[in-house]
C-alpha cells in the first residue's frame, strides 16, 4: 500500500474501533429495527409461499395448460405449484449472485432502497396476472429484488452494530422479521378462504406485502450509510460524521461517557471484485460456506416452503393444514428471541451445528407422526432449530469476509442456497406427488448432516472478534 492508502486504512480502522466500543443503547436498536423492517417483507414473502399454495391451486393456476411453455417439460408440469417455488428461488438466486455487488459499489443504503422498490413493484404487478406462466415470470423478478435485499441487509447490519452485540442484533432483527411468518399464515388462513371485493384471497396476501414495502421505504431516512463502506471508499469525512453523530446519540441515551476505543486493526483497502473471494485467505471460507449453504437450501426449504402440503400428505385436511401451519410458524419469532439471549455467548459455528442436528431429528419425527399434537410438536421443534440456524448463518457469513467484498461474498455463497432451494421445490413437489414424506425426511436429515461435517471441520471461529480482526 502507498502512504495515502495506508493513512486511509489507519483512519478506517480507528473509526471501526470507535463504533465497536459503543454500548448497547436505543440508537443502535433503532438502526436494527429499520433494517428489520426491510427484511420483514422478505420473510413475509417467503413465508407466504406455502400458505398461498392452496388458493392458487384451487384457482387452477398451475395446471399444465396454465403454465405456457413450461408445460412442455414433464417434470415441471407434474410439479405444479413447485414451479412457483422454483421461480421464487431462482429469482432469489439471480438477485443474490448477480446484483449483490451493487451494495459494494453504490453503498448499502442505496442498494437497500433499490431492492425494496423492485420487490414492491413486481409484487404488485404479479397480483393481477391470470396464468401460472405470468405469475411465475413476475414472481421471478420479485425474487431478484428480494435477493439483493438479503445480501445488502446482512452486510449493512454487520457493519453498523458493535462487535459485542452483533449476534443479538441479528437475533432481534430476525425475531421481528419472523413475526411476518405467523402474519402471512394468519392472513392466508383468513383471506385464502375468502375473496374480498371479488379478488382472490391469495392476491390480497401478496398485495399487502407490496404495500408494506412502501412503508419500509418511508423509514429509510433514519438509516446512516455504513461508515465502514464510506471509509474504504476514501470518504473519511462522511464516515467520521456518521460515527460522531451516532456517538453523540448513544452518549445521550446512556447518560455516561463512552469508553476509549480498543487498539485499531487495519483492514485491506484494495478495490473489491469477485475474484477476491477466491484469493488466498478467503478461498477456504468461500468453499466452506458455499457447500454449507447449498446443502442447507435442500434441507431448510424441504420443510419451510411446504408446511401445509406436508401436513396434507400426513392426512391433515386443507383447512386444518393452514391452522396447524399457523401454530408452527409462531415458534419462528419465539425461537429468535430465545437465541438473542445467548447469540454472543456461544461460538456461531457451534450454533449452526446444534441447530442442524435438531432440524434433522425433528424432520424424521414429523415424517412418522400422525396425531395432531405430534405433528405440531415436531413441526415446532424443526422451526425452532431453523430459527437458530438462520440467525447463526446470517451473522456468521458476513463476518468471514472484509468490507470491500462483503456483499459480494454474502451474495455468492448464499446464491448456492437459492439454487438448491429452487430445485428442492421441484424435487419435493415430485416426492409428494408420489406420496412419500419419509423420503423428504431422509433427504432433509442428510443435508443437515453434511452441514455439520463441513462447518464443524472447516468453519473458523468468529464470536467476540471485530470484523477487522477476523479479516486482517
Q: Could you characterize what this model shows?
A:
This protein is an all-alpha fold and 472 residues long. 74% of the residues lie in helices and 0% in strands. α6 runs antiparallel to α7, α13 packs parallel to α19 and α17 runs antiparallel to α18. The chain is globular. About 1% of the residues have low confidence. Keywords: Membrane, Transmembrane, Transmembrane helix. It is found in: Membrane. One of its GO terms (molecular function) is carboxylic acid transmembrane transporter activity. This is MFS transporter.
Average pLDDT level: 83
CATH domain class name: Mainly Alpha
Radius of gyration: 22 Å
Quick one: how many beta strands? 0
Main sheet summary:
none
CATH fold title: Growth Hormone, Chain: A
Indicate the low-confidence ranges by residue numbers.
Answer: 74-78
For the record, the CATH architecture stands as Up-down Bundle
Helix content: over 70%
* Annotation field: number of helices: 21
Shape: globular
Question: Which structural class fits the helix and strand makeup?
Answer: mainly alpha
Order of helices and strands: HHHHHHHHHHHHHHHHHHHHH
Distance between the termini: 14 Å
- Indicate how many domains the architecture comprises: 1
- What is the beta-strand fraction? under 5%
CATH homologous superfamily?
A: MFS general substrate transporter like domains
Protein name: MFS transporter
Membrane topology: Multi-pass membrane protein
Subcellular location: Membrane
Domain Major facilitator superfamily (MFS) profile: 31-463
